[in-house]
Amino acid sequence: MTDSVIDDGQVAAAKVNAFVARFNHTGYRELAYHAALPLVLTPELVHYLRTRFLREANVPWEAEVDLLLSDLCSQVGYELYTMDTQVRAYLLAQMKAEPRWQQRQVEVAQVLITYVSFLSRMNPQRRQRELDAQRLAAMTYLGDESCQQVTQEIAERLKQLESAEAQGESTHSIRAELAYLTRLTQELSPQLEATPELVDWAALVQRLLRQPEAVTQEEAEQSYQIGNYTFTPSALPIELPSTQEERLEGFPPIKTLTFETGRFEANNVANNFPNLKIFTVQVATLEFEAETTVPNERPETEATYITGGALPLYSPFYVERPPIESRCFEAIEHPGCLIRIKGPRQMGKTSLMARILNHAEEVGCVSILINFQLADEEVFKDLDQLLKWLCVRVGRQLSLSNRISDYWDDMFGSKENCNHYFEEYLLAQLEKPLALGLDELDRVISQPDIAADFFGLLRAWNESGKHSKNFRKLRLVLAHSSESYVSLDLKQSPFNVGFTTVIREFNQPEVLTLAQLYQIDFSITWLSSLAALIGGNPYLWQLALHEISQSNVPYEFIDQVLTDGGVYREHLLHHLLALEQYPELLAAFRQVVEADTSVQISATEAFKLESMGLVKVQSGRSVVPFCNLYRQYFRQALGIDTSDTPTESTPRLIVFSFEVATIARDESIGEWQITRELRDAELYEEPLGEEITLSMVAIPGGSFVMGSPKDEPSRQSREGPQRWVQVPRFYMGRYPVTQRQWEFVAALPRVQQDLASDPSHFKGVYRPVERVSWFDAMEFCARLSIYTGREYRLPSEAEWEYACRANTTTPFHFGETLSPELANYSCSENYNDGPRGDHIGETNQVGRFGVDNAFGLSDMHGNVWEWCLDHYHSSYEGAPTDGSAWIDEGAEEK
What we know:
single chain, alpha+beta, 5-stranded parallel sheet, 4-stranded antiparallel sheet, 20 strands, globular
């Protein structure tokens, strides 16, 4: 026993040490210590812990993601993570041995309790078990008295379960609550060492839940005194260990089998059927334990799934795309609901539908799936035939006989007959709600003669669900490809009723998750190279990762994707053939792939190409190819000259993900609230020597109103007059130049003047360089240009403001005000009645707040002043409108 504990501790220590060594930053260990204190982790909480307690440790924001995606933690739900039990125990033991952590644990606990209380008030729908676990865990760090309170609360909740069955609670819910409380106790055992009875009791109940046959009768009858209560397993409404000793290897515990025997008596029937024999039959029912897995539902465990269609319900390769699943699961629980799933083909609509229907079953519905691909072509030529087919198919799956002749009356129309059949026959027979999935509805949409009436019927059912007893039982889930819109007259709106879910592409964390499921070990460079090629298309990622999992040669895969034998051949050919049916769309898409930047096409063409999944609409009618794979393939397929495509002198872009924050006032509580969301953009990395790079973000071209309105708070007169400015595409550093980058360039050969290698007052290699003049900045750019062979310069003022605003019109790209949680500024005074904070009075590490603007640029507000290429002018009167720098002789630098 001792050896196994030591081994666990050694393994945990090795994991933590490897995690810190991998990133070569001591702050990673500090973040791991803090993250060990809560029971459940979310990206939001880890970010809060880092910004609240590790300001002075200069822990980079990337550490938050690195921690959650490391082998120290496991994902257990949407944005829910738990730290490995042994790792957590090891970190808590390490902290216990260090006096400085005694006070810090209390501080973190107090903050956690306040944090949990705030979340409960602000969002009552939030996962309550998560908040409950956080609260109880935090209390255990506040001293012995609080630990006793936790023990007593858990004991009281356990006591309530003893009578839960008599009060109508289901066995499933009782077992779920028992599992939660015992698991919670197990995780809190290092802090609850003063009450070993509770820990021992929890361990016994866990064994009863998982392996009752492994618990002896003596153990099952043992009593435990926990606080003011006495517990024995026999008082709980769970199955006690069987007294049956016999057991076959590989089978569930043997249970007593009861059956009936029956005798078929021929009587006088035998006279009419002389060959009829008298026989005896035995009928029996064999019951297994609830935990026994049904063979055809066993989850796949190896990365051998061949992609090409919907992922099976229990496939391990299904990756959730929050918050799509959680919102659909919530919607299907409402009587009479209608959920519509749309998106380009092969984006995962059918896979999502299967999981929605499965969730419906888990909450007490009967669920069936009707796939319109199974209907013959003749069915879609007549509305009456289509609706009869639907009624009979639904009835067959519900094991109900075909009674079309009883309910179909020629005096009424097809829709009325179908409505009557559903309401008075199919739904009337059901005691439970019916979750009905209708997949491949593209086949109906493509038939304009029947589509309007068919979808009108579904719309009527959705309305009937508000007042009809039987139609309240019906919950519809519809799936169709947005590609079907290509053939429609867009003057008539497509079916648009109910809760609509548009399937989106994968973001980077979801791609990482999928790669881990395929057990592929890769570098971020490899991931970025493939992401730059295929974007976030889930089908393309499934194909790629499956192929690479078999060959494990990622770069060879990338080089072969455009060959005749490439795995994307059929996918790409489908798009080419589809476009050839619509010459006007093919011509528009040719313009898109021929250009290296975004192009403007008609709104109708942009909508239809986006519906096909071929383009992304950046703003209005401005579009780019969905991914570089489409650009490269269609350039070849359409014979477009590629002699001017990027070479070594123009960088290869990679896709990166980042977090955008918005601050807005919640009038209901009178407070400013910050919301965050993930975005993607493109950048290239300019190497500057060993382990030093310069990240240059691709800023899309566009137009904006430069300057500020006259009524904007704290406005200066030189910020006007406002005017429209057109800015072409350019690249801009993701972060302000750091002292480390400056030191490297300052060591390069002189061009016009000398550069101090360390001019900054506030020292730190990852802090921005400061105390440099405009001439110093110009020299920096000149040296960098010679070293890299690429032109680097300061941005024009128009480029800087356009890049900073990132398509916003508010004073800050965050919103109407600033927050100390988002930027480093003089926050002891507020702007526009915004929040205040403690002004630190010095620069901090670039990217410290972990948020960017919508273009992917960080630290555009606060931290340091920045130089532009323009000369100084007292207003914008007469300034260029093409995005260029305003430079004239005799003017001061700006």
